[in-house]
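Objective 1.3, modelling of assemblies. Example input:
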Amino acid sequence: MTDSTAPRRPHTGRRRNEDARTAILDAVLVLLGDSGGAPVTIDTIARAAGVGKQTIYRWWPSKGAVLLDALTGLAGDVVSAPAGETLYDDLAAFLTATFRGTGRASTAAVLRSLVREAARDPHAAGLVRTFTAARREALRELFARHGDEFAPDADLDLLVDQAYGVLWYRFLLEHHPLSDRDAAELARGLTVQAGARS
Amino acid sequence: MTDSTAPRRPHTGRRRNEDARTAILDAVLVLLGDSGGAPVTIDTIARAAGVGKQTIYRWWPSKGAVLLDALTGLAGDVVSAPAGETLYDDLAAFLTATFRGTGRASTAAVLRSLVREAARDPHAAGLVRTFTAARREALRELFARHGDEFAPDADLDLLVDQAYGVLWYRFLLEHHPLSDRDAAELARGLTVQAGARS
Amino acid sequence: MTDSTAPRRPHTGRRRNEDARTAILDAVLVLLGDSGGAPVTIDTIARAAGVGKQTIYRWWPSKGAVLLDALTGLAGDVVSAPAGETLYDDLAAFLTATFRGTGRASTAAVLRSLVREAARDPHAAGLVRTFTAARREALRELFARHGDEFAPDADLDLLVDQAYGVLWYRFLLEHHPLSDRDAAELARGLTVQAGARS
Amino acid sequence: MTDSTAPRRPHTGRRRNEDARTAILDAVLVLLGDSGGAPVTIDTIARAAGVGKQTIYRWWPSKGAVLLDALTGLAGDVVSAPAGETLYDDLAAFLTATFRGTGRASTAAVLRSLVREAARDPHAAGLVRTFTAARREALRELFARHGDEFAPDADLDLLVDQAYGVLWYRFLLEHHPLSDRDAAELARGLTVQAGARS
DNA sequence: ACATAATCGAGACGGTACGTCAGGTCTTTTG
DNA sequence: CAAAAGACCTGACGTACCGTCTCGATTATGT
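Predicted structure (tokens):
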């Protein structure tokens, strides 16, 4: 009785070059960063990373996947869930940190390019969904930690989507910057909304 | 006292063919509607409209511009501002109508394709900004009609962006449908937020 | 003692696909052959050869260049220099063969399309010049083999150009067919002219 | 009894503007002259002549026809048949004049562009045929005036085509200039050919 | 040690769509 | 009713990326 998931012959041949992987991811971030909206093509990435195109496609299924991968590495560090006394405090801290993350020029360009990619590549779109779902979950948990401040019938999903909705809506359209004041005000609004029973 | 903006010789030569214009716009909507995500190309549009490609490029600077133009004509009809007694009533009516608009398969495809286009065509992106700004303005006016229900320091922009934020966020990510219940609940939440003083 | 012309790393990456090359050239000849004057487009060639357009543009700078390339392969076989006793015999044989070459419908169409292309594509024109220069050289050598039949001051270039001049002039204008009789008569005329001292 | 060729109503409406006609023809010559091989388009001509495109197409069936018309007006003057004592004298005079005509930069550009046009426009090709036929006829008559210097079985058409063949062949390929010496030498050669019986 | 196997950089390949250009026709206004 | 202006349809052009497919060279195992 053998474990069928374990490959018979675990590995033969040359192993994946870690340098290539990081070179690619770095190149993506650099290109997304300073190319002001100019389309980041696979050829460009490969050239910048000093890598063959096939090396990219060997490890990522599509261009969007590479972009997303580059992004997640970046965004993971940015926001960590705070653990304060009140819902408002935690919410304000979380939103402020998140808003600031999108404000930094380096990540902003990356995020925007990523959405660009997801818009036409179904595969990338799927990855973006996974990514955003994870972020929503983080915010849900934050809310859940303060369940006592809630009206019993509060729509948690809606609250979460209002927060991220404002974030993405303003971020992508750029009609209004995402200031610290906005983060605080939004936190206040959502807190009020959560506590009010219908 | 002459109107200096009126050109001396208003126009010479053949005038723009209005039939061609509408044929193009109609063709766009039809194609966006039934092509299930299949990319709508300029050639296809021209073919379907019985029009030369050059005629499209003569009047629109890019593909995205055509799509947007087709869309704006569509969206104008869909939602008209209601005029009820309370803020909540108006808001609920407006949001329900808007949510339903994105639900109809025909317009949904158009909207999504449009965003796809805006994602890579800077010009189209600009037009999308104009379009969304107009919609925001409509909602702002709705809020303004019920100024008496507001706390003096309520952040109107933030309220508007929460509404449209949820809409677009859910519409594009498709992680959650936009039901009538959501519209009502969102209306309630925003009404509460508006009335609460900090 | 090393061959310095040999590059250290002779080639990297996939090599040119010889099948594609011949498929393109064959497709050109076929299309030129049976399309009765209908313009042979790059798309058509690519389609017929089962090849991407870019593959054509990667190796030939213009459409005319492809046509010419297809032609040269063809023309090389057609006429081979004869080696007879007298100038007249060789000349008559050479001209008859050449005249007949232009008579065959398949090559005629190719030649005419080629000139059409050279007429507007400067690059193709250059290639045509190279091609015709090679042919003239062949005829010059034929003349040179019978130098003893010449007047010392005979203008060899002029004789050659008279031969090819008649050929192209009649071929392109089509006011007069190029018969075997004409070839013989032209051979006689040029022989006489070559032998007569001024 | 009326002259049926005279129109009943001699003319109604605005009459053809002779100025426009000459403006068009002049513009063609100017454009062909100084545009170093740059394609002369109908739009360019119309613009340069200060004329509507339709005005061109009203009077000429295609672009080539306009070019040819411009040319014939130019070339008609150049060569007039000489009337000397011997075949050689007349031939040399005729060829020298003709060669010189092609040498002048102004006419050279026009001729070359014309051939370019004839190469792809069947209509223009027909006109070129007519044009060249007329020129051949002129040369035939010159030969005919000296019938006494001929062998009885001389092929007059072939002689004519050798002359014009060399001319066009060298003119278009540009591999060899058309000097006065060449004209004289060609005249000598053809005279010898004409006189020699087979 | 030596065959086996997977990786790497390079770059050619089949495709799809793009946006442009020219030719020749059609339509409107002005003289 | 001709002429200037210019919009229109058609069809070919050459370019840009995509994602796949070879190459020869380069490592790592397994026997």
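Chains A and C do not touch (no CB pair under 8 Å).
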